[in-house]
Fold this sequence. Notes:
- This protein is α+β, with helices and mostly antiparallel strands.
- The chain has eleven helices and 17 strands.
- It has helices spanning 3-13, 20-32, 68-75, 116-136, 142-146, 154-162, 210-229, 234-249, 324-327, 338-348, 357-369; strands spanning 36-42, 48-51, 62-63, 79-82, 89-97, 100-109, 167-169, 173-180, 188-194, 198-206, 255-263, 268-274, 278-283, 286-289, 309-312, 318-322, 377-384.
- The strands form three sheets. It has a six-stranded antiparallel beta sheet with strand order 3-2-1-6-5-4. A six-stranded antiparallel beta sheet has the order 7-8-17-16-13-14. Strands 9-10-11-12-15 form a five-stranded antiparallel beta sheet.
Amino acid sequence: MTQRDDVLGRSVRAAAPHALVDRVRDALAASHGATRVQLFLADYGATVLTPYDPLPGKEQPLSLYNSAEGRAFGSQEPREQQVRHGDAVDHHLPVTVRGERTGILSVRLPGDRSTPEAVDELTHVADLLGHEILVAERDTDAYQRARRISRLTLAAEMQWQLLPARACSAEEFSIGAQLEPAYAIYGDNFDWAADAEELTVAVTNGMGEGIQASLLSNLAVNALRNARRSGLDIAGQAALADQALYEQHRGASHVSTLLMRFELATGRVEVVDAGSPQLWRRRGRTVERLPLEAQLPLGMFEESHYEAQEFHLLPGDRLLMVSDGVYDALSPDGEVYGERALARAINSTSLLPAAAAPRALLRALAEYRKAETTDDALVLCLDWAGRADAERPAQS
C-alpha cells in the first residue's frame, strides 16, 4: 500500500456514512484530476445500476446488460470508455466485497492520466469503497434507498434485511443467490455462514403470503441461526427450529427447508431435506436432481425427528437449490416448468459464475411464464472448488 493509498483510506473511513462518495470524489479530483466520479448500485432485482446521488435530470438507471457499466459489472473487470468530444476516459470499476457484487464506481480521468497505474489505484479505491459501504449501512439508509427503483413491500423489506448477502466467495466455494419478485417477495429466503472448517447453507420457504409468510421465515431463519451458533449439528438445528415454530403456531403454519453443511477440507456434505426446495447438481456435462430423503417441514408436528444424509462434492461441481416457485411455475398455457426445462436452464448457465447464474436462471423462468407471478422464486448456486491439498473422495 502506498502512502497515498493510506491517506485516502483514512480520509474515507473518517467520512460520515452517507458521504463516502463525496469524500472519494474530492480525493480523486485532487490526486488524479478526476472530473466525474459516480457510484452506481445494483438494484434489488439485479436488472439495473442505479446512481447513488443522482443530479435531477442528469443520471438515470443503467441497464446491467446494455451499458459499459453493466458489462463491467457482469465481467467483474475494469472497463474503459472514451468520452465523446474530448480525450477524457471513463473508467468503470467493480465495487465488490468478498464476492458480493455491490455496483460500479465510474471515474472520468483526463486522457494523459489514464494509465495502467492509475487503473490499479482506482481499483483499490473501488475495493475500499465497497468495504466502507458495508460498514456504513449499519448507520444510514442512504445506500439501500438508492438501490430501489420502486417501493419494496413490507414483507420484502423484512426478507431482504434477513439475508446475509447475494453472493460470497472463498478459496473452497463461491455462492450466488437471487429472489423474485424482488420487490414483493413473501416467504422464500436463504442464509449461509462459514468459518475455517465448514459452511452451512439454508434455503427456507414459509407458507402463506405477505407479512404472515415473512414473519414465519424470520422466525425459522433466526431459530436456525441460534441453533447453529450454539454449536448444534444440522439435524439438531432443524429440530430446534421445528420446536420453535411448533410452539408458536401449533402446527398451523410450517416452513419448508433445505439445510446443508459442507466440510471445507474434504467436500463431505450433510443435508436435511425438510420440505419443498430441490437440490440439483451439475458434474461435468451431467445435470441431475439429487435424490434426498424427504422429511417433515419445520413446525408441522411436535418434536419431529430429523436425520442428515451425506454425499461428497468434487472440485468443479455446481449445486443449485431452487424453490417450488421455480420448478412449479406455469406457462401461459398452464404447463409446469418442470425438471426437464430446469435441467436445460442449468446447463445453459454453466459458463456463468455462481454470482450471475441465479439471475440468468430466473430470467429464463420469466420468459417461460411470460407474465408476472405472485409466487416467490428462489435460486441459490454454489460452485465447489475445494482445497488444493484435499483428498479426492470416490464419486458419489
